[in-house]
Sequence to fold (127 residues):
Amino acid sequence: MSYQPATASAAAATEVVMKALDRLPTPDRLLALRSLAVLLGTRRAATVVAARSDGFSWAEIADRLGMSRQSVWERYGTEEGEVPPPLRGRRPRARSTTATFSNCAAYKAVTSRPDAIAAPARPQSSA
Fold:
């Protein structure tokens, strides 16, 4: 499967970011990369929704992202309100109130809070 190559402006933007990262000391570069990963995920989802609003097909978006049409639709279709149908022969699971995390850092930040890991005290029954 061949995907659309980067345009000159996309390559220039990537080069600017890479040069800025390369100038940072290693500890700061690691922090910057973590922040960029979160920001890029959010921006990517918003850009896919904007592309759909502009009339791009799932195939056109997939080509530009270097993904398959199906994987783009499964990942971002719900952002647009297009909920993927349940798998054949299976009932859809009820959604739980448990939050899902798109990356390790978000999970670690939530689970490492003192209030998240402290077990609630159980009342002792007096028998």
